[in-house]
Amino acid sequence: MSRVGKNPVAVPSGVDVKVDGRTVTAKGKLGQLSYTSTDDVTITLDGGQVTINPVSNSKQARAMWGTARARVQNLVTGVSEGFTKNLEITGVGYRAAVQGKTLNLQLGFSHDINYPIPEGLTVKCERPTAISIHGADKQLVGQMAAVVRAMRGPEPYKGKGVRYADEQIIRKEGKKK
Asked: pLDDT for 42-68, tens place per residue?
């Protein structure tokens, strides 16, 4: 039994949710998102709550029960509040800047990296060593943060590179004489 799937998704005020068969569409102040579930679950909207139930008792249906509930919750949260990922840059000469719809990164390579910001995301750099990615789609926010981090991941000896703001880097001891 899914402990996550049992809980209904509450729809806050200011968010309009429509259920059309297997497709759930949420519309709020940050935009509109939709999710189409598999045939293993049924989605119903009743009284400001979205309820998800499995069609059968198979392992696949029970797994998709919790997954579908989490995806619908992310839709509702995304269009009402949005999601944010914060990245920090450590290293001498490492910095970032937003230029229009492009994120310009200087990460110790012989060239600058210009990464185009995807549609639906906003990127801010309050400091040259801090990047804040904000958007309604949780998957898109996490994907961009992962791609930027992968451009120069943190190394364990000096901690140089791009890391998540809440990430702990396990440091290694250097060579001994």
From this structure: 888 888 888 888 888 888 888 888 888
CA dist 71 and 97 (Å) reads 32
State the pTM of this model. 0.84
**Which amino acid is residue 115, in one-letter code?**
Y
Q: Using CA atoms, how far apart are residues 62 and 55, in angstroms rounded to an integer?
A: 9
Residue-wise pLDDT for 32-46, tens only, equals 888 898 888 888 888
- Identify whether residues 100 and 153 lie together within a single domain: yes
Give residue 67's Cα distance to chain centre. Answer: 15
- Here the tokens at position 99 are 């230029």
Domain range enclosing 69: 9-80
CATH of residue 46's domain is 3.90.930.12
SS3 content of the chain, % helix, strand, coil (to 5): 20, 40, 40
Separation between Cα atoms, residue 12 and residue 16, nearest integer Å: 9
